[in-house]
């Protein structure tokens, strides 16, 4: 469930919100920031696929040395659809792109989606800005601890904490300096205490948010 990244191995580290097939927007954003794939690292908060036009290209990022991601609920829907043979829920939530691929593309997509079953739910990154924890929707505890048992479904789906923060309630999560989440499309990045929500709805015409943490 957990994976740790040593930030000292990289020059700059960026965190990006949900991609959802928005590959051209990502490449443009990296060019604008003079991202160097030989020295820099990009970490995604999950949901590489679905809804956007280039899900297959976003899956191709999994093979890049300079790219890491946590598992998103859309990756999990794809994993479950392929594992159990029931495509309905995935297709209803943006997975129709898979059926529209030709045979060779489908084989590439299948290989990448099967590899998503090995993606961590939680990344811990120790870098210049401190201990950064990346998860898709939430870290479902009041204090972070490495390898602590937490509910995986809540990590992928839960919005309760964000809803509380938006209504003026809630507080920080102890145990780390920063927590980075996606999952819920917002008009702009939302920060409260040490919690940061950076899915700004790129697939719906919003901005693609990238944050430099080192």
UniProtKB/TrEMBL annotation:
| Annotated InterPro entries | Ap4A_hydrolase, Calcineurin-like_PHP, Metallo-depent_PP-like, Ser/Thr-sp_prot-phosphatase
MF terms in GO: bis(5'-nucleosyl)-tetraphosphatase (symmetrical) activity; phosphatase activity
Q: Which residues form the Serine/threonine specific protein phosphatases domain?
A: 70-75
Q: Which domain of life is it from?
A: Bacteria
Q: Name one GO biological process term.
A: RNA decapping
Q: Which SUPFAM superfamilies match?
A: Metallo-dependent phosphatases (SSF56300)
Its transmembrane ranges are none
Q: Show the coiled coil region(s).
A: none
Stored Pfam families: Metallophos
Which GO cellular component terms, listed alphabetically, does the Swiss-Prot or TrEMBL entry include?
A: cytoplasm
NCBIfam families, per this entry? PRK11439.1 (NF008516)
Which protein, by its recorded name, is this? Serine/threonine protein phosphatase 1
